[in-house]
Amino acid sequence: MYPTEIIKTIIVDDQTIIQKDVETLVQTQPGFIVIGTCGTVKDAQKLIELSKPNLVLLDINLEDGTAFDLLVMVPPEKYGYKVIFLTAHQEHAIKAIKLGALDYLLKPLDAEELQTALQKVSKEPPAREDQLRLVNQYRNGAIPSRIALRSQQFLQVVEIGIIKYCQSDSGYTTFYLSDGRKIVTSYYIKEYEEILPESQFLRTHQSFLVNTVHIDRYYREDGYILLKDGTKIIVSDRRKEFVTKFLTTRL
Amino acid sequence: MTADSLASYMRGTINPIFNYNRTDSALPILDSLKPVVDRFNNYQTTCLWLRMVAIVKAAEGDLDSAQLLVQQAMDKAAKEDTTQRELLAAKIGMSSVLADKLEIDSAIEIAEEAYYLAHKIDRTALPLLTIKLSKLHMDAGNLPAARRYLEDGLRVSVKPAHRAVLTHELARYYEKINKIDSAIIILKQLEKDPRFFSPHFIATVQENLGAMYNANGQYDLALEYQLKGLAAAKKAHTDNSISYFNVGTTYGFLKQHEASINYLDTALLLAAEEENWSFQRRAMYTKATILKDIGKKEASWQALDSAYNLYRVELDSSIFHASKDIETRYQVKAKNDQITSLALINSMTKKTSYQQRIIIYVLACCVILGGFIGYMQIKRRQLQLKLKEATMQQQVLRSQMEPHYIFNTIAVAQAIVRSGDITRAKEFLSRFGRLLRLSLENARQSLVPLEAEIKALESYLALQAMQYPDKFTYSVEVYTEYEQDAVLIPPMLIQPFVENAILHGIHDLEHSGHVSVTVNRDNDMLICQIEDNGRGFDNGSQSQHKRSLSTAITQERLDILGKQTGKKADMEVVDKQMKGLGNGVLVKLKIPLRQPK
Questions:
Q1: pLDDT value at residue B180
Q2: Sorted alphabetically, which Gene3D superfamilies does this protein's record hold (chain A) (predicted)?
Q3: Does A21 touch chain B (CB under 8 A)?
């Protein structure tokens, strides 16, 4: 048997009391050691450059800047570390993180959630540059034109325009793309409804989110939408009114 | 007399005349009504009158005039009729006229418009429209569409008359798709239906049954029904060359030549009366075939010759009709142009007299409006002030209860609990509880007691000190016995500066920082100082941006307060280094106090 690989972890949070708390939680996980804690972008940059961690638990708001500033200075792909964001409540930042399909945990931390997140860490590659670019563009107020989708096997950045529709099935969401590909992700459809441009994506049904660019016709009486490629998308009875309004006023 | 009673009079008098196919006698009545209708100038009666005259014209065969009249009714209805009922009636009329003119496609188009309109405003018109549309589609050869309308019609119709006609059409549909047996079954049911008594309709059903049996080769039965049908038609005075021709043909099939020729002769006579050249030719041709069958060669040849002559007449007459048609069209167009130019002149004269009146109105309005604007300006300024205050309240609410702060504080509480320091955890939670309660209470008011605000501030500072241990110390000094001082201030005026001092002023100092708050009273002004020993203004940094935003909000709130109390509120934020007072930021606030009512 090979010895399990040790995951060297750094914790970055501007409150020392939280640093310590997260440290104790991580230390109890087999295979994880905390090799450093700090509270500023400046210190975190030095620490990463010197100690080459495998994982950084990263609070978004730091004393002298934000977590995203840090990731630009020491790109995770280049330094080979993975990131899990920590945040109390920052809706916009969380949406940005979701758009880039990055990992995050909410404060106050739940010990079990942290454990699940840590167990997944070793299987995943470090955040790529294109993922981070998506996050930063969104944070700067740009309407996203691409989105990162993470399936069990791979991570794919796709143009939002080629998404035909999303279909949910018990916690999983399947993306149907206009080039015929399908991508299954493990987020709820509601989360995508929040981050995809609301002027372009239409929730027609509990299980369907449709890209209006691909809509050909709407059969109101029969309760479905016909896409340009001939796919039929169900419109639920209680959304008919909304769909009519959406299609007549926003397009 | 009202427009309504006029309309119902017209319906009551003229509709029965139409129903008995005596359209010609309707015209004098309609003509006599014209001045009355014109005087009323009511869209309902005018549209009704136009449509009725159109029916008369159509019955006379003057389809172009009929179309023009219906078009006028349609235009008027489109302009003036908000209920759209007259528009619906006009569209139905137009589709009939177009169908009569054999412009089937246009007739279908307008009938379908009417059909959708009827769905919206008057479902009682649906049976009639489904009948019309199924007939039209059948004529156009679009059988699936015809069937759709038939089914729809049978679904929406309750009146026996409508159902009978639809059923009859269904039989025609079956005939077209070559299911003669089904057609026969349906027609037989119709014939026996006791609810339907119109001899004209019975005649049609029976004649059709005859035609079906003929198509099936059952000539005996065909003859029986055709004769019955003819008898019924005679009773209804609707017998024409076609009925006789059909009977004659069937006799021919049954080899009863004499009878056949008799009926065909009658058909020829009637067709000549009707000026129906093509029928005359067909009858003559059939007669020739029969004469040939019984060996009367010469008579047969003569009949054929007449058929040929009739064919020429038919050709000539169709050419004549075409040229006449062009002429009528030209006349219609000329009349149209005349009407348009007349309408134009009318509206021009109306306009000029309007213009003068409008100028007077506008001037009067201007004077009144001027007065109003002055008054509204004063009102608006008062309103704006109120509005601004409301917005500010919301902003305060948001900054006070910021979810991020709450969740973060809970995370810290959790960390303290996990570290096992129960005494500290208890203290932390009780302070947090107090702060939450105070800010929830304070946030709803635009003014709060000074004491409550100071307590909230102390709780906030204590919590921050526990969250950033060893980072800073603090002091809060308030003038003596302020607890007994029943004065009010706006909530959350001081707190943002304290927050700035902690988060932006002293956050990454090498040494421990200090934040001091002093509050004094000078008559009805509250003098507050918030001071730190941090790094002062750090121009251009992100924290500096947040700092200036909260400062701007406070400045605005103070301005409003100043206007409300009539006393000058003031704010001063200085970098101590600039004034040679050491490091850090000093904020001075002058807040006008208000007494509880």
A1: 82
A2: 3.40.50.2300, LytTr DNA-binding domain (2.40.50.1020)
A3: yes
